[in-house]
Amino acid sequence: SPQRSADPMADVLANAAARGNLEAVRMLLDRTVDPNAVNSYGRTPIQVMMMGNPRLAELLLQRGADPDRPDPSTGSLPVHDAAREGFLDTLVALHRGGARLDLRDKRGRLPIDLAGESGHQHVVGYLRARPARNAALPLE
């Protein structure tokens, strides 16, 4: 059942993020819409964002979005979604922005498990090379 959002702009921001509309998201954040505002479905912009858009992830993280908030129904984090869908650039952006890689969804799965199930070996390789609890190392 949809929740009432305290911030009427929360749905507008979430919808812009879901469409991958970087300029609209930037404009709304510039107008001080909370980057962690919850939409009618209990989800934040970084949870619903277009996963194939690493620049959008970077923008939301720079403005204070919390990458480690679990989805209310599945327990998935943005890193789970990026890993499942094979979006390595977005996963790297999330990790550099502070996202943890060692948190499990409600079915007990880590991002690396989802990447493996989906056959995204490039993502598995990235995740395997990084101790999950450590912050991302800058690329050489």
UniProtKB/TrEMBL annotation:
One GO CC term, this protein: nucleus
ANK repeats: 74-106
Swiss-Prot/TrEMBL keywords: ANK repeat, Cell cycle, Repeat
Gene Ontology BP, a term: regulation of G1/S transition of mitotic cell cycle
GO MF terms, alphabetically ordered: cyclin-dependent protein serine/threonine kinase inhibitor activity; protein kinase binding
Pfam families in the record: Ank_2
Domain of life from the UniProt record: Eukaryota
Ranges where the record places region Disordered: 62-81
Family per record: Belongs to the CDKN2 cyclin-dependent kinase inhibitor family.
Protein name (Swiss-Prot/TrEMBL): Uncharacterized protein
Organism of origin: Pelusios castaneus (West African mud turtle)
Lineage: Eukaryota, Metazoa, Chordata, Craniata, Vertebrata
